[in-house]
Amino acid sequence: MSKFLLIEDAAEDAEACKDTVKRMNIEAGEDVIQLCVTESYDKGIAELKNEYDGVIIDIKLDGEHSGNQIIRAIIEKYRVPVAVMTGTPDTELEEGSPICIYKKGEASYEEIIKSLCRASSTGLFNVLGGTGIIEKAMNRIFWKNLYPQISLWEEKKDKGIETEKVLLRYAVSHIQELIDSEVPAYVTEEMYIKPPVREEIKTGTIFCSNKDGMYCIVLSPPCDLAVHNGEIKTDRILVCEIDNHDTVNQEVADKAQKRDKKKENIQSFCFIKGALF
Considering all CA atoms of the chain, what is the largest pairwise distance in Å, rounded to the nearest integer? Predict the structure, then answer.
C-alpha cells in the first residue's frame, strides 16, 4: 500500500482528493492507496515525521505560512517525492527542481498520485529514504564494523589525524562492499556522477568541448591534478575522445543477438575505435 500526505487548507479540494483515492481503490479492487490530510503548516510539518510515499502540497495556506516553507523544510530534512497542486503556482523552487507543479483546474489528483507512485516505484526512496537501505546498511556497519574499532580511531585522533573525513570515506567503502555482495548487476549509469558534485577536474572526469561538441575523458593521474595554492599542479591535461555509450551499445546490438557474438563484437569494436579506453 502507498501512503500519501495532502497538505491543503481548502476543504473542497481536500474532499476531491479523498474521493479520488476512494475511486482508485475501488477500481483496483483493494486498498492500494492511503491518504492523510492536514490543513495547516504546523500540522503538515508535524506529519512529515511519519513515513510517506509522497506529499502533495498547496502553496497558499491559511495564516502567515505557505507551502513554500513546507517545501523548504522537506528539502532540508526529508527525502520523499513531492508534488505541488495549487491555484497560485508562485513557488520558490529553483530551476531544474524535480518537484512538479500542477495547477488546479488543469490537472487531476489521480494524475498527481500516479506520478508520485511511479517515482516511488523506482526504489530511489527505498535506498535513500529516512528508513531506506543505506540507513539500514549504515546501522549494520556502525555496530559490526566501525564502532567496535573505536579505540583505533581514538588513537588516530590523538595523533592529529582528521578522523571524521577519513571515517566518511571508510564508511562509504563498507557500504560499497556490502551492496556489491547483495546486488551484483551493474548498469552503465553507475559509472558516472551526473551532474558532477564537485567542479574541479579529476581523473575520469568527462567533459564536452564547447568548440566542436566532442566528448573526452580525463586520463591524467590524480597526482598531476592535485591542487596547490589554488592551482592544479600540471599545466596540461591528458584526455581521450570517447563515444556515446548508447551509440556503441546500439551498434553492438545491431550486429548480433547471441551473447557470444555480442562479446566478440564488443572486443572488436573496442579495438577498432580505441577511444573507449
Answer: 68
Chain segment 114-128, per-residue pLDDT in tens? 999 988 887 777 766
CA distances from 80 to 52, 75, 77, 221 (A): 7, 9, 10, 39
The rounded distance, in Å, linking the Cα atoms of 48 and 45 is 5
Contact 85, 110 (CB under 8 A): no
Which residues, listed in sequence order, are joined to residue 35 by a DSSP beta bridge?
4
CB 85 within 8 A of CB 67: no
107 in Cβ contact with 56 (< 8 Å)? no
Please tell me the total number of residues recorded for the chain in this structure: 277
Is 58 in contact with 88 (CB distance < 8 Å)?
A: no
Global pTM reads 0.61
212, three cell numbers: 566542436
241 forms beta bridges with 216
Distances from the Cα of 104 to the Cαs of 13, 17, 112, in angstroms? 9, 12, 11
